[in-house]
Known about the structure:
Blueprint: H1 2-18, H2 31-38, H3 60-63, E1 84-87, E2 98-101, E3 106-110, E4 116-124, E5 127-132, E6 135-139, E7 142-150, E8 153-160, E9 163-170
Antiparallel strand pairs: 1-2, 2-3, 3-4, 4-5, 5-6, 7-8, 8-9
Amino acid sequence: MKAAFMRGIAVAMLCLAVGCGTSDDDSSASATDASAARTPSISSLQPPPAIPVPAPETSSDTASEPDSDQQAPLAGQVPQELVGEWDGDGEGSARATKIEFLAEGFVAMYYNNGQVLRGPAVVQGSTMTLHMPGGPLYVRNWSITPFDTGYGYAFENLSLDGVSYVRQTSGG
């Protein structure tokens, strides 16, 4: 039954392509021609009418307000002290193995499963919002604490709501 249906579709497509039943000779009328006569030929098909598009408003009131459907891309803000790569432990599904803050206002979070999430980072005081695909990540409290391990090695610890990331600042 499925094969017969597919053959019927193929015949109909072929009739549309070659114009079955559109000859001017009435003497060759058949059942195929009768069914094709009910089906318009490609040459008789017309494109759908154009949909009118309203002209953009030019009043000064609407020029200053962004369109709710088309908002400007979010501009990130990252302080210089955060810029760079920070290594994490990658334990648990929510912890990144590495976080990289860029001076241009973006962040990249690298996970131990190979996934990398990127987006704007907005830092305001001791809070930050990392705008990632799937929804923003909110950090209520972040801080950087330097520490020296001796022998000329110095590090900084970045705490994001109690989750630590570290980077080496001197030595080795």
